[in-house]
Each structure stands twice: as structure tokens, then as C-alpha cells.
Amino acid sequence: MREYILKTYGLTKRYSNFIALNNVDLSLEAGKIYGLIGQNGAGKTTLMRLIAGLSIQTYGAIELFGHQEERQRQEELKRIGILIEESGLNGNMTARENLRYYRIMRGIPGSELEEELLEMVGLKESHKKKVKNFSLGMKQRLGIAISLLGNPELLLLDEPINGLDPVGIVEVRGLIKKISEERHVAVLISSHNLPELYQTCTDYIIIDQGEIKKILTQENLEEECQHHLLIKCEKVEALVAVLEMKLGTTRFKVMPDRSVKLYDYLDQREKVMRTLFENNILPTHFALSGDTLESYFLSVIRGEQGV
Ligand code: ATP
Questions:
Q1: Same-domain check for residues 43 and 189
Q2: Pick from 24, 21, 26, 22: which is nearest to 6 by CA?
Q3: How far apart are CA 71 and CA 9, in angstroms?
Q4: Nearest CA residue ID for atom 26, ligand 1
Q5: Residue list, ligand 1 pocket, CB within 6 Å
Q6: 243 contacts 249 by C-beta, under 8 angstroms
């Protein structure tokens, strides 16, 4: 059975006349990493703040760990970890001192936890170094360690990769995967850049102007962006037979609009065309297709993906 950590129903947030989030229905499962992708102002932070109980929705409902009722939901908020902003770190303290400060503030016992979390995020060796001398990547990793203090089952990371250099990006992505694997938490991680999160997430949620435009798995995304020959013709059954019998391939897919995506023979398009002609199939469309991640993302938010 699917184990839902969070569900939202028609979640809407209005600021006077402006709708920052519109009718959002989401379901998040344990152990998955969700990439929340949207341009600046798309509504990512608004959604995270609503989930974390830092802001109140105008309409709609949030169900957290199976509870919708306000009092119980407030109680369940303890099971959520949120990435602390850089400004929440004390620059004159070391990583361990910052962790201790937040551990004590939140009434969490056990100083051995500090050691464990520093190890987890790869900051055990930072010793006496003050946080003000940390790289941005180190600060982000410390922020993530703090978010893990209460042993959360849902982790909300708002743009943890923003502003990092390529090494920092790789480190933070690796850390997020490690946390998900070792702790079986659900992670919701926002970014304005789809390629940045590619292969880090199990699922992607594309948001634009406060609306969810598309939800897809890593597998779906790969399929959407995979290069293929897009073939359209009158006799689809005959086309499929020719692909299987004459070209010996099953690496194709018949789409709902009866076009065919062929993932084989991309370098031998002439051979495909010749074989089709020889078997009396006259394509009305025959072209190499496939998006880059960036152009796929843009096509979704421009509404070119039939959503
Ligand atoms: P970014 O990547 O820039 O952080 P975002 O996707 O996180 O963007 P939000 O911060 O959720 O976007 O903002 C969504 C929209 O709601 C924006 O147009 C923003 O200006 C607006 N907004 C956010 N907070 C408020 C507020 N307190 N009052 C009025 N409008 C707000």
C-alpha cells in the first residue's frame, strides 16, 4: 500500500487580489525525492510555507501523516524538517555549536546526535572553523543537518542548490540522495532549474504561476526527453508490423494520438524511410524529435505539452 506523508486538496493562497497558489492537489510518498521546479515567483516557497504551517491557506486542505484536523496537523508538524536559511546560522559559531544551539532550542536530547549529523553531511572535519568562513556549499550542508535534527519524515528544502558552484551542487545533490536512502524520508526540494535537479529526484512537479502543470517520474521525464524518430502515417498497424518484422526492433511506442516514437535507428533514418516505402507505408510526418531538459521544461510551462 502507498504510504502518503502529505496530501493537499485544492490548496490555494491569495494575497489580496493576487493568487500565489491555485488549486494545488499533491500527494507525497515516503522515501521519494520530489523536485518542485518553477521559475521565480512560481509559488514554490508559498507551497513549502503552507506545508510547514508557516502560512495559512486561503482555501483547500492539507493532510499531514493522515491528519487534516487542525489540532492533530499542528502536532504532526514536528515530523517535518525545513532547511534553515543562511541567515539563521550564527557566523561566529562552529558547525557543531550551531547544531547544538538549534538542538537545545528545540528541546532535542542527546549531544551524540550532533556528531552523527556532522558525519552525515560531511562536516565532521570542519572542527574549529567558524561558519562565517564556510563556503556556501558547507553552509547549505549545515542547514540540512539542522533540518534533520528532529529526525523528520518529510524534509522541505527550498532552493538548496541556488548559488552553489558545480562542486557544491554535486555535494548537496549527493547528500539529499543519501538522506533519502538511509532515512527513508520524503524530500521536497525546490529549484528554478530542471537540469540542476535531474537524476537527483524520483519525481518532478512542475509549477508555474501558482499552478501545477505536470507531475512526472524520473522515468517519464527520461522518456519525454529521449531522442526518437517521430513517425505519423495512416496505417499505424502496418507501420508497427514493419518495424518489428522488417527492421527487427521493438524499441518504439505508439502514442495516444497514434503517432509512433521510434527509439532505434536514429543514425539510420534513410534505411527506415526506405523500408517504409518498400512496404507501402507513406509517412505524413517523419522527423527526429526529443527535448533537452530545459526546452522540455519551457514547453510544459508554455502549455505545449497538452496539460
Ligand atoms: P522564487 O524562486 O523567486 O523564490 P517562488 O516560486 O518561491 O519564487 P513565491 O515566493 O512562492 O515564489 O511567490 C509566489 C508569488 O507570490 C510571487 O509573485 C510573490 O511576489 C507573491 N508573494 C509571495 N509572498 C507574498 C506576500 N507576502 N504578499 C504578496 N505577494 C506575495
A1: yes
A2: 26
A3: 18
A4: 15
A5: 15, 18, 20, 38, 40-46, 192
A6: yes
Residue 83 DSSP code: P
Indicate the top mutation candidate among 16, 44, 54, 191 to test ligand 1's pocket, ranked by most ligand atoms within 8 A of CB: 44
Q: How far apart are CA 17 and CA 142, in angstroms?
A: 38
Full domain range(s) for residue 192: 4-216
pLDDT bin (cut points 50, 70, 90) of residue 1 is: low
Question: Which helix (H) or strand (E) is 81 found in, with range?
Answer: strand 80-82
User: Is 306 within the bounds of a domain?
Assistant: no
**pLDDT tens by residue, 97-113:** 999 999 999 899 988 99
Is 295 a domain residue? no
Query: Would residue 222 count as lying in a domain?
Result: no
| CATH number of the CATH domain containing 198 | 3.40.50.300
pLDDT per position as a tens digit, 123-151 = 988 778 999 999 888 999 999 999 999 89
Could you give the number of structural domains in the chain?
2
The more confident residue out of 302 and 179 is 179
**What is this structure's pTM?**
0.83
- Provide the pLDDT for residue 307: 42
Ligand 1 midpoint to CA 41 (Å)? 5
In sequence order, what are the residues at sequence separation of 6 or more whose Cβ sits closer than 8 angstroms to the Cβ of residue 115? Answer: 124
Q: How far is the CA of 55 from the centre of ligand 1 (A)?
A: 12
In terms of domains, do 88 and 204 share one? yes
Domain-embedded: residue 164: yes
How would residue 37 be classed by pLDDT, with cut points 50, 70 and 90?
very high
Q: Does 37 lie in the same domain as 125?
A: yes
